[in-house]
Design goal:
Layout: H1 9-28, H2 41-67
Length: 72
């Protein structure tokens, strides 16, 4: 008995495209403006910087996965 995996290449192409576009969309939003939060401004700026860093990592990961969705 031979193990075989059948995949719909058009569907995989669609998934790869969606992942790639999601990654592009995340990075196209840019960084948020510095809020005026009084005494909490520094803390909020630090939090936004961390969120922005994580979004950048996520976008890169989505692009990387889109390139590995299938290999023919």
């Amino acid at each position: 008995m031979t193990d075989q995996l059948d995949a719909d290449l058009a569907l995989l192409d669609t998934i790869a495209d969606r992942l790639r576009r999601a990654g592009d969309s995340l990075t196209s939003t840019g960084n948020p403006a510095t809020p005026d939060a009084g005494e909490a401004t520094a803390m909020i700026v630090e939090l936004l910087a961390k969120v922005s860093e994580n979004v950048t990592d996520l976008a890169g990961g989505l692009r990387a996965v889109s390139g590995r969705t299938y290999q023919v």
